[in-house]
Amino acid sequence: MNLDKRYIMLKDSSGFYTYGIFDHPKGFPEFSLAEARVAFKLSSAMFHHMTVSDTMQREMPAYEDRQKGQPLAYPEAVLLTNPINPVHKGEVDDKYMYSVENKDTGVHGWISANPRVGFWIITASSEFLVGGPHKQDLTSHAGPISLSIFFSSHYTGDELSPKFGNGEPWKKVFGPVFVYLNSAPPAEKDLYAALWKDAKAQLAKEVKSWPYSFPASDDFPAADQRGTVTGSLSVRDRYVNRLDIPGNSAYVGLAPPGEVGSWQRECKGYQFWTKANADGSFSIPNVRAGEYNLFAWVPGFIGDFKHNIIIKISPGFDFSRFAQVFSLLSFSSDDILRVG
């Protein structure tokens, strides 16, 4: 496996970008990858406050607290028995407590009170992540450590760890992700809230700028080398309504061709997901050139949808007025409850 690791610093940008090009050329021997990630070990003397989401932010125990603690059922879970900060005594620390789904992995990181700085990992697009929007993975955890996970077997087993046969050609770009640093003046009373708000604002800027124009690689196509698919999705379930029902809040995505639900086990290609509007309309922009199936599911309805026609995306491709009805098999209560 060839691995090209790249780092980019832009003028007047408070941070740096990093990405990797993984290449298993034709003729290379059989190979497998268990996990790929970018990992940062921060200063334990500085960073004590971790933020993963609006509802997941707290002062964290030190790594030394874990070393002195009581191991539990598996190595990652430790009962803190004699922590440096007594407020953590009796807590269980486990890095898996701070996992999020791919769709929510936009920004997470750490804040130092002295000096007053924040360290953040920003992921502007999930197109290179594996397993679809609801695949979970690690973010930041005690150490202090921050991770950008490209792929792993966490929560799934090795089915989502890519494996390559003898001579199988494969190339994929993971990233870029943005490592962002911010700060707040002494006059700012709520340091943590201010830096978190700024980090989320920076995430919005990065998302708006995707796909980035600055990577100097033919393997990372710019916006004019990508395509768009727009359309609408309706659900047909005559036990619920005699009319077709708009696919309100449906998850709609493009993933490599496969069976219904195969996107959940897909780990070699790219995936592009969006959430449909209340009327079932959707738009999936900035899709890399290639062949895809369109997949979807609608909250509140049983089953997954797959459009059987392979959609071929080419540079500048714009597939509009795409309308599809997701027909459901209706189940009686006996069918749902029957055992054996």
Automatic annotation (TrEMBL):
Residues 248-316 form the Rhamnogalacturonan lyase domain. InterPro entries: Carb-bd-like_fold, Gal_mutarotase_sf_dom, GH-type_carb-bd, Polysacch_Lyase_4, RG-lyase_II, Rhamnogal_lyase. It comes from the Eukaryota. Coiled coil: none annotated. GO terms for molecular function: carbohydrate binding; catalytic activity. Pfam families: fn3_3 (PF14686), Rhamnogal_lyase (PF06045). CDD domains: RGL4_M, RGL4_N. GO terms for biological process: carbohydrate metabolic process. This is Rhamnogalacturonan lyase domain-containing protein.
